[in-house]
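Morning F.,

Quick status update on the modeling queue. The single chain you submitted on Monday has been processed. Sequence for confirmation:
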Amino acid sequence: MELLKVENLTKKFKKKGILFPAVSQVSFTLEKGECLGIVGESGCGKSTTANMIARLQKEDEGEIYFEDRKISGGMLLKPVGKGLQMIFQNPQDSFDPRDSVIEGIMQGAAAYGIYSRKELTEKALELFSYVGLKEEYQNRKIRQLSGGECQRAAIARSLICEP
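Structure tokens below.
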């Protein structure tokens, strides 16, 4: 079964009135159970491609299908967001610095209304152990974690939605 299908994805950015191509006609299919790596030099469009798939940026052209549902063309991710989660390159910047670590992990799942508050807290604490975070870190701020610990918190934040 096709999990993700990307067809002719294109994105251009405007700088000083000139359009610069960031992603040009990218196409691929990812089957359920497969892994896909997008490799290239800095600035070649890897992050822009991922951001368009995650609906953090709108594509200029092309189609994106997730589990046979079209998600491109301005559609918000909420209807499919539970199944499609992103782990950012720089996890420290992806957490609200005012939140505790556990609040940051629960944030996405809370927005989707997946669990009750009690279930969400229990699931988050289970994930602390699963990703190798000490439970005593739950009330710390994200800036109090090391880079590796912050990355594990970002992984837990994605896993809590059970993508």
